[in-house]
């Protein structure tokens, strides 16, 4: 007969699995802050920005890189997420992602160029993606506000093609941009009210390294 210790162990494993299963993805290229810090190793990150983020949020938040979400968003992103907390989706667990810094790892981009965006996915769902870029007045050393983003997305995609690990989202990078900016990506599921959020630091022109998921 199964004793209480065995039952407790089974429940612990089940809860651990369910916790992991809730996560579904983040931008891989352009790379999201949470995924960049995960790749650096949350126990011993290399960059100063990731060190600061882990110090504030703890390492587990970055092992759960695919869970920067709101379960009942249903398109109410601006209503639910306060200014200054866009990168964490207003979640205390991910507050390190909201640190206003100019040294987050950035992906190099060319303005008005064709680009294959990759969304790293651990559980695919039907839904749509919206890509916003910051205004020319954006200051990365100030907390990110909704008003820092341009009013309309530069890219909208519904149910993009997927390979074994990524949604593949072809598009064109924003026009007229130079220097450091941020791309904010919202993935809203259409089979659920759940939505996921990615803050991707980018640099238009010289001064940043191209990232690869290899």
TrEMBL record:
Q: What is this protein called?
A: Chitin-binding type-4 domain-containing protein
Q: Which Pfam families does the entry link to?
A: LPMO_10
Give the signal sequence positions: 1-23
User: Cross-referenced Gene3D superfamilies, in alphabetical order?
Assistant: chitin-binding protein cbp21
Entries under PANTHER family matching the protein = CHITIN-BINDING TYPE-4 DOMAIN-CONTAINING PROTEIN, GLCNAC-BINDING PROTEIN A
- The organism's superkingdom is given as Eukaryota
Instruction: Recite the UniProt keywords alphabetically.
Output: Signal
Question: What organism is the protein native to?
Answer: Ceratopteris richardii
Pinpoint the Chitin-binding type-4 domain residues.
Answer: 24-202
